[in-house]
């Protein structure tokens, strides 16, 4: 008698399946014992961690670099230039007395060099006392921070925008803020501190305009806002016509919509701001 679909005679049906199972099981067993060797130079090191005691400082910031891998050297630069094997070797905490862009990579003779990690620290110059911020655009109810006071208190948020009350989150076509000083001050630039966290649909603004009594004195067009980038804090500096000013109006405009490469394409991006000051 034939078994339909198997092509085994009745006598073979009694022993054929166990035999097939035995043969298949033997093959699997043999394959599972096959050794696979992974060359260490195909393994890439993780990027080192960069920690700053304050990314916005008045006198000094202390920066530490860290990676737990025996035999690893961490190389770094402080001017944002690319890191290579000839860059300075990290040996202990770095003290920054001026604005710096820290970029670091990990090197090991047995592994591939890590990707670069980057963190910016900014020295806040000028007299900040008595500065008052006034919002003409209210932040979203879910991300109010401490209101306008958050923009002129010298306190930085972290890349975790849900931690603390430092960040003000907006989902508007335009954000307008007045910055008022107790007396006229000589000003050369305005700095706006923003967050980029594209995984959370937070993009840096596209345009920042500075005006005095309706007259434009400075503009920044930030072309990188539509490009894919890592999560980080940015200090966007807007040069202005140097002069003595007692009040500035800052207008911040986001991208009109999230770019096509992003899963949120076509919708309005978020803009997060935590500090604005003039120098």
UniProtKB/TrEMBL annotation:
Residues 61-116 form the GH29D-like beta-sandwich domain. It comes from the Bacteria. This is Chitobiase/beta-hexosaminidase C-terminal domain-containing protein. It comes from Flagellimonas flava.
């Amino acid at each position: 008698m034939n078994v339909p679909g198997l092509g085994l005679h009745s006598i073979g049906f009694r022993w054929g399946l166990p035999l097939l199972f035995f043969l298949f099981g033997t093959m699997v067993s043999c394959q599972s014992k096959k050794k696979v060797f992974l060359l260490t130079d195909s393994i890439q090191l993780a990027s080192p961690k960069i920690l700053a005691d304050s990314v916005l400082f008045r006198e000094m910031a202390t920066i530490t670099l860290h990676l737990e891998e025996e035999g690893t050297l961490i190389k770094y630069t402080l001017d944002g230039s690319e890191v290579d094997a000839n860059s300075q070797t990290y040996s202990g905490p770095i003290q920054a007395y001026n604005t710096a862009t820290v970029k670091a990579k990990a090197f090991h003779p047995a592994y591939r060099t890590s990707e670069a990690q980057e963190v910016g620290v900014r020295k806040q110059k000028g007299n900040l006392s008595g500065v008052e911020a006034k919002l003409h655009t209210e932040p979203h109810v879910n991300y109010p921070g401490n209101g306008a006071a958050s923009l002129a208190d010298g306190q930085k948020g972290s890349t975790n925008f849900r931690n603390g009350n430092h960040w003000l989150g907006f989902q508007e076509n335009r954000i307008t803020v007045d910055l008022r000083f107790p007396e006229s001050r000589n000003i050369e630039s305005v700095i706006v501190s923003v967050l980029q966290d594209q995984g959370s649909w937070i993009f840096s603004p596209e345009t920042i305009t500075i005006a005095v009594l309706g007259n434009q004195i400075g503009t920044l067009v930030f072309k990188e806002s539509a490009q894919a980038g890592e999560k980080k804090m940015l200090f966007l500096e807007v040069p202005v016509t140097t002069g003595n000013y007692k009040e500035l109006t800052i207008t911040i405009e986001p991208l009109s919509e999230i770019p096509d490469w992003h899963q949120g394409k076509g919708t309005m991006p978020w803009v997060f701001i935590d500090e604005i000051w003039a120098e």
